[in-house]
């Protein structure tokens, strides 16, 4: 009897929490189809805001910026982070405390401190040398900086999980280091590479604070565009673009679920 | 090692090769983080000790002006504004972390009571909202809590808020936003702890007629402590430095330290003051990390705690 009330109570809390977690997102989706310019009263179903969305050049260019930023920073972070991950594994018996501190620094530093210190630094360097003008370039640099540790840690843990004798075997099999990398290392850590790339990509798309402070006037990403639109005054157009982004996340969630299930079979 | 039989020169040559390998693999990333994060942070700390120039940019001579301003000393004498902001940040962090723990415990436990097949799905359901951008999530709460929405009307009719004020912007909205934002970060480590839970201990407590509360406190709670501590680090430290949520949901009276710092670099420029605030934030972060480590070592038996 007592156990049953406990179980029911738990299930109740679970469902309430789910409503809590999804209500703000569902409200956005619902009101993106509202014909009235209001977030309190739903009048009629309409696609007007979506139509306006695709005619808005600023949004299109913000979307492009987001993609360029996410892809290019992830690629750079993947290469650099992979090298660190492998170095950490190969030399794990040495004292590498300083390296661990360096790698954890971007993770523990509060976003806002990260963002403003890069911004102050870039502005100062630009004043002195004319390099590093705020824009997509500085944003890519900043994003790579916070992506490197995640890539390095994922790759490192994949290497740790491997059988060390594999490396000996590869050494015997392939004479040149290049061949060893191409035919042995890359294929064996491929799952780690894929998940590291997608994590970097997600981190980049998800980031607002660091992008906001390192962005230039022409390089607004989608979150920055949404932010300034909210600051200027709410329009259901934001609901529409936010709904599309929520849709992309939902797709990613479903894909990851299917992917997981296949992986287990 | 295969070099053991070789002459010392071969061995030292191998060492040189290994060191070169270490440099080759680690140096690019290490340099990257050093140039683009360590140097900027060091520069920011230097800025805190400079004086504020006419356009908000830092100037020589070195001074402690920024820290005095941060402590509330201005042209018109001392004002408590910044102190309130700091206290509010601490208070919001504390309240939201406690609330997150209270919600996350039953949720994490509930997931472990479900069938194994469903657990990854349930976890995913908890995590997915946090994949959307935090600006969008805060915007969702703005929509839900604005005046004239059902929730606001309900709060008005009970008399919780003044008529036509709505639930946002307010400190309450900020707390809600923080709990919403950080809940998954607590559920995941707690779930990991619950999944490893040794149920024999709980059984033993029940056999000895322990009340449910005592059984939880003595048999369950200590086992979930590593998860709780890891979750607290993941929730409290970012919550303290939060910028987006107080900015969008809090309004002027809901400002936290992150907003105070950011505003000095965006609107009312005063870089040294902002940098001094950033230093304060860093100190708080490292004290928090250090304290959690100590607690973890004392209570968690020296291991298991992930930090």
Automatic annotation (TrEMBL), chain A:
InterPro entries in alphabetical order: Bact_Polyamine_Transport, MetI-like, MetI-like_sf
Alphabetically ordered keywords of this record: Cell membrane, Membrane, Transmembrane, Transmembrane helix, Transport
Domain ABC transmembrane type-1: 63-259
GO cellular component: plasma membrane
Transmembrane segments: 12-33, 59-84, 96-116, 136-160, 181-203, 238-259
GO biological-process terms attached to the record: transmembrane transport
Membrane topology of this protein: Multi-pass membrane protein
Domain of life: Bacteria
Signal peptide segment: none
Main location: membrane
Cross-referenced CDD domains: TM_PBP2
Entry keyword Oxidoreductase: no
Compartments, record wording: Cell membrane
Family: Belongs to the binding-protein-dependent transport system permease family. CysTW subfamily.
UniProt name for this protein: Binding-protein-dependent transport systems inner membrane component
Provenance organism: Chromohalobacter israelensis (strain ATCC BAA-138 / DSM 3043 / CIP 106854 / NCIMB 13768 / 1H11)
Upper taxonomic lineage: Bacteria, Pseudomonadati, Pseudomonadota, Gammaproteobacteria, Oceanospirillales
UniProtKB/TrEMBL annotation, chain B:
Domain ABC transmembrane type-1: 86-292
InterPro entries per the UniProt record, alphabetical: MetI-like, MetI-like_sf
Lipid bilayer topology: Multi-pass membrane protein
Any single GO CC term annotated in Swiss-Prot or TrEMBL for this entry: plasma membrane
PROSITE patterns, A to Z: ABC_TM1 (PS50928)
Keyword Disulfide bond: no
Intracellular or extracellular location(s): Cell membrane
Keyword Plastid: no
CDD domains listed in its UniProt record: TM_PBP2 (cd06261)
Signal peptide bounds: none
Membrane spanning residue stretches: 21-45, 90-109, 121-142, 172-194, 215-245, 271-291
Keywords recorded for this protein, A-Z: Cell membrane, Membrane, Transmembrane, Transmembrane helix, Transport
Gene Ontology BP term (one): transmembrane transport
Family statement: Belongs to the binding-protein-dependent transport system permease family. CysTW subfamily.
Protein name according to UniProt: Binding-protein-dependent transport systems inner membrane component
Organism in which the protein naturally occurs: Chromohalobacter israelensis (strain ATCC BAA-138 / DSM 3043 / CIP 106854 / NCIMB 13768 / 1H11)
């Amino acid at each position: 009897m007592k156990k049953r009330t406990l179980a029911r109570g738990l299930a109740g809390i679970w469902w309430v929490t789910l409503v809590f977690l999804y209500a703000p997102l569902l409200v956005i989706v619902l009101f993106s189809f509202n014909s009235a310019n209001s977030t309190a009263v739903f009048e009629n179903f309409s696609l007007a805001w979506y139509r306006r969305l695709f005619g808005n050049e600023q949004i299109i260019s913000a979307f492009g910026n987001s993609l360029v930023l996410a892809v290019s920073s992830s690629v750079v972070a993947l290469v650099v982070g992979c090298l660190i991950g492998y170095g950490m594994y190969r030399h794990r018996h040495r004292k590498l405390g300083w390296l661990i501190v360096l790698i954890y620094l971007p993770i523990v530093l509060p976003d806002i401190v990260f963002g403003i210190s890069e911004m102050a630094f870039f502005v100062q360097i630009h004043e002195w040398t004319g390099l590093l003008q705020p824009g997509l370039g500085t944003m890519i640099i900043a994003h790579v900086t916070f992506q490197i540790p995640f890539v390095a840690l994922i790759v490192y843990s994949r290497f740790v999980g491997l059988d060390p004798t594999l490396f000996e075997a590869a050494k015997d099999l392939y004479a040149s280091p290049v061949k060893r990398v191409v035919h042995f290392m890359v294929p064996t850590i491929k799952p780690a590479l894929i998940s590291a790339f997608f994590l970097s990509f997600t981190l980049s798309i998800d980031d607002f604070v660091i992008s906001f402070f390192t962005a230039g006037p022409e390089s607004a990403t989608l979150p920055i565009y949404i932010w300034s639109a909210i600051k200027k005054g709410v329009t259901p157009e934001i609901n529409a673009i936010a709904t599309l982004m929520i849709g992309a996340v939902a797709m990613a969630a479903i894909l990851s679920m299917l992917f997981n299930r296949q992986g287990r079979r | 090692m295969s070099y053991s039989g070789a002459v010392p020169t071969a061995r030292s040559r191998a060492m040189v090769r290994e060191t070169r390998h270490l440099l080759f693999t680690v140096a690019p990333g290490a340099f990257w983080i050093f140039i683009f994060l360590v140097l900027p942070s060091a520069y920011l700390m230097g800025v805190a000790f400079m004086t504020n120039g006419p356009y908000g940019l830092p100037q020589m001579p070195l001074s402690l002006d920024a820290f005095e301003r941060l402590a509330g000393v201005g042209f018109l004498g001392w004002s408590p504004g910044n102190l309130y902001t700091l206290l509010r940040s601490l208070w919001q962090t504390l309240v939201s972390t406690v609330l997150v723990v209270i919600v996350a415990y039953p949720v994490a436990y509930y997931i472990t009571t479900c069938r194994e097949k469903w657990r990854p799905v349930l976890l995913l359901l908890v995590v997915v909202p946090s994949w959307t951008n935090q600006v969008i999530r805060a915007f969702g709460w703005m929509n839900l809590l604005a005046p004239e929405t059902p929730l606001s009307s309900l709060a008005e009719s009970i008399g919780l808020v003044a008529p036509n004020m709505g639930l946002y912007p307010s400190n309450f909205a900020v707390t809600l936003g923080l709990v919403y934002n950080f809940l998954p970060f607590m559920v995941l480590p707690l779930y990991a702890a619950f999944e490893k839970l040794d149920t024999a201990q709980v059984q033993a407590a029940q056999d000895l007629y322990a009340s449910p509360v005592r059984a939880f406190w003595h048999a369950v709670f200590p086992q979930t402590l590593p998860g709780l501590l890891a979750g607290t680090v993941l929730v409290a430290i970012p919550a303290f430095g939060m910028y987006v949520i107080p900015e969008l949901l809090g309004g002027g009276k809901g400002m936290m330290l992150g907003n105070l710092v950011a505003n000095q670099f965006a609107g009312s420029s005063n870089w040294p003051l902002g940098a001094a605030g950033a230093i304060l934030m860093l100190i708080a972060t490292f004290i928090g990390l250090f304290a959690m480590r100590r607690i973890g070592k004392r209570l968690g038996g020296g291991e298991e705690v992930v930090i």
